[in-house]
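pipeline stage [seq->struct] | target=DUF2000 family protein | organism=Actinomadura gamaensis | residues=137
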Amino acid sequence: MRFDTKIGIVVRDDLAAWQRLNVTAFLSSAVAAGAPELIGEPYEDGSGNRYLPMLGQPVLVYTASAEQLASVHARVLTRADISEAVYIEDMFKTGNDADNRATVLARAAGDLPLVGVAVHGPRNPVDKILKGLSLHP
């Protein structure tokens, strides 16, 4: 199935494996929270056990250098039709959502020490924003 929109998550290539997974999980939740229409129906197994719904379309995960990540972020900021979530280095040192938001608020857009971003929007513009990045191995 071909979707009209695309979800891409970009994580910095020098992160530890646990950090890449953590950032990807948080950024996926941001996409789900910001676009609830992307959430599918709950799951149920043959025994009648119910499970939480998930995003109803694929999430592509890419890796990028710090410079590439900053470039993706800068391109997204010029597009009103693209939604973005950010994860910055400072968030690894906090333990709650309020402190995470405060770390982002304390910095200007061009000074965010990005370790990951999620982008969601129409397929073609998202493809252009992510062009040249490698899919996560």
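stage status: PASS
auto-comment: The radius of gyration is 16 Å. The chain has a mean pLDDT of 96.
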